[in-house]
Predict the structure of GNAT superfamily N-acetyltransferase.
Amino acid sequence: MSSRTSPTSQPITIRRAVARDAKRLTRLVRGSSAYEGKYAAAVAGYRVGPDYIEAHRTFVAVDADEHGGRVLGFYSLVLAPPELDLLFVADEVQGRGIGRRLVAHMQSEARAAGIDRLKVVSHLPAEDFYHRVGAVRTGTAFANPPAVPWDRPEFEFRIPPG
């Protein structure tokens, strides 16, 4: 059994992000292997700051280690207009269901906020993931050079009532 598909050995908790998580979230974004090569410029100067965490519903998945929990992934839900702004899972734990758990948590948060659908502009390497977790392709977000010099798939999550 490969380490990419085996279950995590520690229990996972999803909790609201706090200001002191900002540096770890920024490192996770900048260190993502999904943003290597031609995609590297998109996250080179990216920062998830305490102000961002305070302004949006940002949640982190952490394991329960003796050091207060290692960040395994996170997402950010923007309420107006409804959008999944960020979703990242640490490279070393991808394939273990953490992204799927973060999406389920996001859907629960969206439902609680009265949202019945929300948009996601996907990074190209994440397109298959969004299909697998139930997002529906709705269009294309066109390139916006120099920040994003490539077209990206646009998806929608439809949030069923609880």
Observations:
- Strands lie at 12-16, 57-63, 71-78, 83-89, 117-121, 136-141, 152-158.
- Residues 1-8 have pLDDT under 50 and may be disordered.
